[in-house]
Amino acid sequence: MSTAPLRAAMVPVMRQMRAYFAPVNRVTETPTIFDPGLCGVFALNSPPAPWLDLGWVENFERWYDTATGVVRSGAKTLPAAQFRGPQEARVGFDFRQWGKLQMALAGGSENMNVLAPAAGSATPAPSGGAPAPGVAVLAGSTASQLVFGTGVGSAFSAGCLIAVDVDYQQQIGYVGSGIAAACVGSAAAVNQDANYVRRVTFNVGRVAEVTATSVVLAQPLLGGVPAAGASAQVVIAFVDREGGSFFQEWSALFVAEQESGGRVCFYYPRLSPNPGGAGNSAGKFLREDLATIEKPLSAVSLRASFLALPFIDTNDGQAVLCYRSYFPAGMAAAY
């Protein structure tokens, strides 16, 4: 009979992979930090702000493409030391849920809000033509309740989507409250469109209730309390495009929900959507996939691929692409 000690609970068994994203400050290139020491306060079903729960993902894959070189010396050129070449790491998976943020991450460039058209609009455009005028957001508004004054019911109704942000005033650079949604190179490039910021903003919400003077949102706006001078417009749909010069950047956390054993987390401080960066054996990149439910019904999933950008660890100054954390189960062996 073996007398070796039991090595229980050392195999992480997962049910599914959960994806959480948070914005990177594009001006300072500061990511949202995930501190594994504070994992106990990171509730998977209600993550702390500004982390956003984007649901469970499938076909999760990670690639580490950093080459390792060898320094050789002596008459027989024996290996004397190693060094790392250009760093590169990628991650890819399928979103099973569709939403504004999921589409933006899978698309990679600007994600457009299709604003409700103006009455009798004769200027159709693939990303939305001339929209109905915005409604000014008044003081006293919060991220969850927007004050408009009397007569709000004529502009908005329960169940509609709205985009809330400031007018475009010919500013150059990143635009979008709270999260950089696009980068404007020149006012002429966006036709000096006063509605452009609301066309691209991530500050989008679903109206749950209309009161006499305000609307209550089903979820808080991602950008927080609307900025002074903000307006709201009805959103009909979301649209992304193949192409575009804007590259998004996000912090990401992927959690293997443990069924037994410990929890495994993959934290990327800076991820940039990179569609087409990792294709199949034929060099093709799948943008959508069909998961059969029961013929003829299939669920449409979004394929997302990302390039990891470097982060300088404050503890030792090392350039890091990803952190892999393992939280052992109770009473599991340390090794």
Output the keywords.
2 domains, 335 residues, 7-stranded antiparallel sheet, 41% strand, mainly beta
Alpha carbon gyration radius: 24 Å
In terms of DSSP E residues, the strand content is 35-45%
| Low-pLDDT ranges | none
Shape: globular
Domains (count) = 2
> What's the multimeric state?
single chain
| Major β-sheet profile | 7 strands, antiparallel
Count of distinct strands? 21
Q: Pairing-aware structural class of the strands and helices?
A: mainly beta
The portion of residues assigned to helices is: under 10%
User: How many helices?
Assistant: 2
Mean pLDDT figure: 89
- In whole angstroms, the N-to-C terminal distance is 23 Å
Can you walk me through this structure?
The chain has helices at 100-107, 196-200; strands at residues 13-23, 52-64, 68-73, 78-84, 89-95, 111-115, 135-136, 145-147, 161-165, 173-175, 182-184, 204-210, 214-217, 231-240, 250-260, 263-273, 288-294, 297-308, 311-312, 319-320, 323-327. It has two domains: 13-70 and 83-108 and 247-327, no CATH class; 112-119 and 128-240, no CATH class. It has two helices and 21 strands. It is mainly β and 335 residues long. The strands form five sheets. Strands 6, 7, 8, 9, 12, 13 and 14 form a seven-stranded antiparallel beta sheet that branches. The protein has a six-stranded antiparallel β-barrel with strand order 1-2-5-18-16-15. The longest helix has 8 residues, at 100-107. The chain is 4% helix and 41% strand. The model has no long low-confidence stretch (mean pLDDT 89).
